[in-house]
């Protein structure tokens, strides 16, 4: 086998040089003779206008003498009405025109069913490879193929699709289809490598749709490459990652110099170059294999910076676009606010105003049809685009909801609903497609609690919860939550069939489809219920249905620190925002001004009656702590001699808390040897011990004169709040 030298990649964002120009063939004729060029795309999601540039780029490299292969790593038939309304037929037509040679499938290729894919395969001029996708136990498409250059070099290619397709595609549309996952996926890939190597391939390429997202751990491209030897190049998809994203995921570094962001590091895993192009044809991948040295170089080219287009592809793409614009381009409503359809932060991590709008529409749509429901739930991963403030067209709604899902009804117990929400937020704040957007439900996710993983859901890559640890539901349908109650939930047919993490819905005692298209329901809701206008008053911001607790923004607050939960609590309660957006400084000494401000905020920021400044020039009335100091003065914690910059001792901190609690003096004496019975703070320490505010520095010492740190005071306040 030819010796291959694999390159390391150092990238500068937005400074990729163009690999070719429109006149490259004239300027440097045959300068790539003997070289191999792999052009690749992934997660195009209906960005059809870019195919003309892809085709021109392929032609330009061939004109320079290179042997060129054009590949795609999946998710090309869904994401925009230009491809979704034809269930992928227009995408395949354009890819045929552009000259694609081989593709692997993404999870969204299965959105319109397995049989639709087999029909598209018959129309495709390119091969479909997916070694780990089985139908009734046999490989559903092709597993691999070999390309041979004029010089006799053999290039072996095999395909893989994410096992998450098992839960990301509608179960009814993939009956009989299974996806090898985990160790079985690794074994499948190694078998493909071994077979292609035995066939004499000089290079082995995996065309995969696995991605690098944390929610996919165990089935990511990174995981596979750490367990499989012999792959020279892995072309990835699924996570919409750029080359820089890959480098950072592999331990690279990012620095900013002026307006330029520099990402440095390696794009290699276990000797394999890993590459991906983002999404929506924002870039085209270019992998060059030097015909003399075997060196592999991978980069991406910004599609916007390319000017040459294939005229035939461009004309057909424009015609398809016009058909959609003519049918879907009519304005039917307007929105006063931007509607958030982003992935993260967005519909896969938190409540959004667009999620609120869609689920409100589901409740309205069900009740319009005569079905009274308590609430609605839809998966954040099914919300695919944002809508800018201004006019709304049918195309906008269809782009947001491109899957053709229908409105379904399930009846579940409170316990089953709680299980579904627990499973669907198991990794929050890490993004997950199953994240629930809701109407009629108020619930809280405590991300500081670990997910208690139970058994693998049947036919899924997700695990159900062994116990409920992270989610609490406050209300359903405006009433207090009851685990034993039966709730009627409006959802989509994908979730009703157990898609994503919603196995509990598939097992529901009542489960039926109303047959109404979700996008039509949303459009009718906006037109009929909202009178054609999404107002700022109604949807200017998320409604507060979902509370995410326990997200740690601070890099200097370790999850194992005694003050970890108190710090998160203090942030959520508005007691502190930290020293900066990313630092809390838990070991920094607190001044009396700091302590009193924290305590004042913890008590609800009560207004003081004192109008005059009793402290004189030592305290500026515009200071952040001024109102807290006035309150403390009225409570008798401090007097006119208050010095805001004095370091606060531990004794002084518990004394302040004791006074705020009403100065109770009935607590038993503590056992601390360093707290004298007649000390001015003795009653305060005794009270603090009785309330569980402190247990001392040791069993026998309190260290009253030690300075109180920021970590100390939030812990004291947190314990005091819990005791109350």
Question: Which of globular, elongated, flat, extended, rod-shaped describes the shape?
Answer: globular
How much beta, percentage-wise? 15-25%
First CA to last CA: what distance?
Answer: 73 Å
Computed CA radius of gyration, to the nearest angstrom: 30 Å
Q: Class by helix and strand content?
A: alpha/beta
Number of helices: 24
Could you give a short account of the major beta sheet? 6 strands, mixed
Indicate the topology.
Elements: E1 11-12, H1 24-27, E2 36-41, H2 51-63, E3 67-72, H3 81-84, H4 89-98, E4 102-103, H5 114-123, E5 127-128, E6 133-135, E7 138-139, E8 144-148, E9 154-161, H6 165-168, E10 177-179, H7 182-198, E11 203-209, H8 221-227, E12 233-235, H9 243-249, E13 253-257, E14 260-264, E15 268-269, E16 272-275, E17 283-289, E18 296-302, H10 311-328, E19 331-335, H11 343-347, H12 353-368, E20 375-379, E21 390-393, H13 394-400, E22 406-413, H14 414-424, E23 436-439, E24 441-446, E25 453-456, E26 463-465, E27 471-476, E28 479-480, E29 486-492, H15 493-496, H16 503-506, E30 510-517, H17 518-529, E31 533-534, H18 536-539, E32 546-549, H19 564-572, H20 592-602, H21 626-635, H22 650-660, H23 682-690, H24 710-723
Parallel strand pairs: 2-3, 3-4, 4-5, 9-11, 11-12, 12-16, 19-31, 20-29, 24-32
Antiparallel strand pairs: 1-14, 2-17, 6-7, 6-10, 8-9, 13-14, 15-16, 17-18, 19-21, 20-23, 22-29, 22-30, 24-27, 25-26, 27-28
Helix pairs in contact: 2-4, 2-10, 4-10, 12-17, 19-24, 20-21, 20-22, 20-24, 22-23, 22-24
């Amino acid at each position: 086998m030819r010796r291959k030298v694999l390159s390391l990649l150092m990238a500068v964002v937005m400074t990729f040089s163009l690999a070719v120009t429109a006149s490259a063939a004239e300027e440097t004729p045959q300068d790539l003779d003997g070289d191999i060029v792999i052009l690749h795309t992934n997660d195009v999601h209906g960005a059809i206008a870019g195919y003309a540039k892809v085709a021109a780029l392929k032609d330009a490299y061939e004109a320079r003498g290179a042997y060129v292969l054009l590949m795609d790593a999946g998710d090309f038939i869904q994401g925009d009405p230009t491809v979704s309304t034809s269930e992928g037929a227009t995408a395949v037509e354009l890819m045929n025109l552009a000259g694609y040679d081989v593709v692997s499938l993404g999870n969204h290729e299965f959105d319109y069913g397995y049989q639709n894919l087999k029909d598209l395969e018959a129309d495709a001029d390119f091969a479909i490879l997916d070694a780990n996708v089985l139908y009734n136990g046999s490989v559903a498409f092709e597993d691999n193929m070999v390309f041979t250059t004029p010089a006799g070099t053999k290039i072996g290619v095999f395909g893989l699709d994410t096992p998450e397709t098992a839960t990301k595609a509608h179960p009814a549309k993939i009956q009989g289809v299974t996806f090898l996952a985990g160790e079985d996926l690794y074994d499948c890939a190694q078998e493909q490598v071994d077979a292609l190597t035995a066939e004499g391939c000089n290079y082995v390429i995996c065309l995969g749709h696995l991605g690098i997202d944390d929610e996919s751990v165990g089935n990511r491209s990174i995981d596979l490459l750490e367990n499989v030897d012999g792959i020279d190049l892995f072309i990835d998809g699924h996570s919409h990652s750029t080359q820089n994203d890959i480098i950072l995921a592999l331990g690279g570094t990012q620095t900013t110099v002026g307006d330029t962001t520099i990402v440095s590091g390696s794009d290699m895993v276990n000797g394999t170059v890993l590459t991906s192009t983002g999404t929506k044809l924002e870039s085209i991948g270019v992998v060059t294999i030097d015909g003399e040295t075997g060196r592999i170089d991978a980069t991406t080219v910004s599609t916007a910076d390319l000017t040459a287009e294939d005229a035939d592809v461009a004309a057909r793409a424009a015609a398809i676009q016009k058909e959609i614009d003519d049918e879907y381009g009519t304005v039917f409503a307007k929105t006063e606010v931007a509607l958030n359809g982003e992935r993260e932060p967005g519909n896969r991590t938190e409540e959004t105003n667009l999620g609120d709008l869609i689920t409100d529409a589901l409740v309205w749509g069900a009740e319009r049809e005569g079905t009274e429901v308590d609430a609605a739930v839809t998966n954040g991963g099914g919300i695919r685009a944002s809508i800018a403030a201004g006019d709304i067209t049918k195309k906008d709604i269809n782009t947001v909801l491109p899957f053709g899902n229908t409105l379904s009804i399930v009846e579940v117990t409170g316990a089953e609903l709680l299980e579904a929400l627990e499973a669907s937020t198991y990794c929050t704040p890490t993004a997950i497609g199953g994240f629930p957007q809701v109407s009629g439900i108020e619930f809280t996710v405590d991300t500081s609690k670990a997910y208690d993983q139970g058994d693998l859901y049947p036919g899924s890559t997700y695990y159900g919860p062994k116990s409920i640890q992270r989610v609490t539901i406050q209300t359903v349908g405006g009433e207090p939550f009851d685990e034993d109650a039966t709730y009627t939930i409006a959802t989509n047919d994908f979730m009703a069939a157990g898609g994503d993490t919603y196995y509990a819905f598939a097992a529901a005692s009542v489960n039926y489809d109303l047959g109404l298209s979700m996008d039509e329901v949303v459009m009718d809701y906006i037109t009929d219920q909202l009178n054609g206008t999404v107002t700022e008053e109604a949807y200017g911001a998320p409604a507060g249905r979902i509370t995410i607790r326990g997200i740690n923004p601070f890099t200097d607050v370790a999850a194992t620190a005694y003050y970890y939960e108190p710090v998160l609590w203090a942030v959520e309660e508005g007691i502190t925002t930290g020293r900066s957006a990313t630092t809390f400084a838990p070991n920094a000494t607190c001044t009396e001004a700091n302590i009193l401000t924290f305590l004042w905020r913890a008590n609800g920021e009560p207004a003081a009656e004192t109008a005059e400044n009793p402290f004189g020039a030592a305290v500026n009335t515009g200071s952040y702590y001024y109102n807290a100091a006035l309150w403390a003065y009225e409570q008798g914690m401090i007097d006119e001699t208050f010095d805001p910059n004095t370091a606060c001792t531990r004794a002084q901190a518990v004394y302040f808390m004791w006074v705020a609690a009403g100065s109770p003096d009935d607590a038993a004496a503590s056992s601390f040897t360093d707290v004298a019975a007649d000390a001015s703070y003795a009653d305060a320490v005794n009270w603090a011990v009785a309330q569980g505010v402190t247990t001392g520095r040791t069993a026998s010492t309190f260290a009253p004169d030690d300075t109180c740190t920021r970590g100390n005071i939030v812990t004291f306040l947190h314990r005091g709040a819990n005791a109350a």
